[in-house]
Amino acid sequence: MLGRLYSSGGVSFLSRTRHVAVGSFSSLCTLSNSATHTSPGASSPRKKNANLHEGPGIDHFLRAANSIEATSARTAVEGASSLGRRQVYLETYGCQMNVNDSEVVLSVLQNNGYGRTEDIQSADVILVNTCAIRENAESKIWHRLNYFRSIKKPSHRSLSKRARRQATSGEAPRRSKGPVVGVLGCMAERLKHKLLESDKLVDIVAGPDSYRDLPRLISIVDGELEGEADGAWRGHDNTQAGAINVQLTADETYADITPVRDASAISAYVSIMRGCNNMCAFCIVPFTRGRERSRPISSIVDE
């Protein structure tokens, strides 16, 4: 059954009806610190600043992002089957695009041997998909990261629970210094290395175009890829290294990845495009998600 398709910020909302209506692209700047939200009211007209055109454009920010060397160029982990059935816990903040991105992240990780858990205490990897459109959104993430730090030093009880689970399920043994913590999305793209420097709260930083690389980044932090950690970020007490990939691309749409969704849900978000070419003075989206690019129509229809 086809569904009614509404376009919002590069993500189409699909509800189960008999008709299809594709809306026009609307502002991607409706990001907030919750999965559903409304955009702020339009501001009153202001006198144009004669010097506004002299400020940095999107090319400046793209050059800055691309000047940061990713921890590697590969997007897959050799011998991924050796990862075992480790568990990933994922939290999502922000817009519909982030909801859809989180489903893509889960698909990438499941295809590399990870399972999903809703129990943060039993997670081997903790990921938070973030928003950067408002200060309040980032403040909430910093509070969560401080909470995650307490989980990095697990109690004897939680270690025993994890050991029993691994023994009964045949999971690969993991290091005993707590879960890997990763920040994804727009806040990761905006702050980059600053997140790895932030009082050892974060192990992995991955921008919106780097989700295919997550299995390898996790393996680098865990020290599973020999020799690769030499190029990673040093200075973490719970891991051998931190890892980062915040490269923006001109063509990544994840069109070939089938998002992981709740089969019982009556609605879903279908991404039809990524990025934005509009340089609105109040919006950071072009700098955190890159230039506008659309998915092939065939992949949208298939999904």
TrEMBL record:
One of its GO terms (molecular function) is 4 iron, 4 sulfur cluster binding. GO terms for cellular component: cytosol; mitochondrion. Keywords: 4Fe-4S, Iron, Iron-sulfur, Metal-binding, S-adenosyl-L-methionine. Its cofactor is [4Fe-4S] cluster. Residues 156-165 have a biased composition (Basic residues). Pfam families: UPF0004. It comes from the Eukaryota. It comes from Cymbomonas tetramitiformis. InterPro entries: Methylthiotransferase_CS, Methylthiotransferase_N, Methylthiotransferase_N_sf, rSAM, rSAM_sf. This is MTTase N-terminal domain-containing protein. PANTHER family: CDK5 REGULATORY SUBUNIT-ASSOCIATED PROTEIN 1, MITOCHONDRIAL TRNA METHYLTHIOTRANSFERASE CDK5RAP1. The lineage of its organism: Eukaryota, Viridiplantae, Chlorophyta, Pyramimonadophyceae, Pyramimonadales. Residues 35-55, 156-177 are annotated as: Disordered. Residues 262-303 form the Radical SAM core domain. Gene3D superfamilies: 3.30.750.210, Methylthiotransferase, N-terminal domain. Residues 86-223 form the MTTase N-terminal domain. SUPFAM superfamilies: Radical SAM enzymes.
